[in-house]
Give the backbone structure.
Amino acid sequence: MFDNLFRCKPQIIEDGIPCFGNELDGDFYSEADISTWRNGGFQNSLLSSKLIDSNETKHLLNELSKETYVIDLASGPGMGLIPSLLRINPNISCMATDANVSVLKEWKSFLADKPSYKRIHFTQFSLMDIPFKENSVPVYSSFIGLSSTKEGLAGYNHVTKEVFRSLNPGGKLFTVEVDWTDIPSIINLFSKMDKHPWSIFTEAIETGIQTWHERFIDNGFKILYHDLFEFRHLKGTDNELGEAAERFGVEIGMNFNAFIIQKP
């Protein structure tokens, strides 16, 4: 099912997982993170009904569940849309991917004795260099996978182009991505932290803030569906920026937008 999509062979196979390199493009996970996954984190991801309970993302999942198989991009510790998708259609085949092979190994080990998840395949690669042929993939999914890309605005545009390149004509991406709502406040927060702002924020100030909707259009996609899934403020448990926001009393807003987009 998936083998004929690849344009090259993996560099190595680790614990049965094909690995295509560029692992530094992914997130770094500590031993504490791994302990959290093993002690309830992964189980909570499998049982979470948040995406199913929301009308905006339930529509996305219902449409996605009609597909034969799906490749989830930058799946991470939450495994992207796969856990929610399998609760709607337990018979769909899925590929979970991430640049960091350790999170995929942990997921594979965790699911090894759970027959209902036997249709999940695991592959390591970076969104900066997707190892699939041009015009080959019918369906991708993601939950904040593209938004987690490094390398600033250039990185955002590069991975969007990679998704477009590898989708077949008429192929679709079902995704939830994040737009930051107050860049000047974020820049001010970095000043309070006495740190240089992340490039994605400084570039947004210099060139203008572009939403994911605009970015998808600019890279050739057709928007089939777009709705706001959730607005919330960054929390201290999200990352170091969230910790600083709580410490200095700065509210940083995020719009989580649900999309179905198509390559014409």
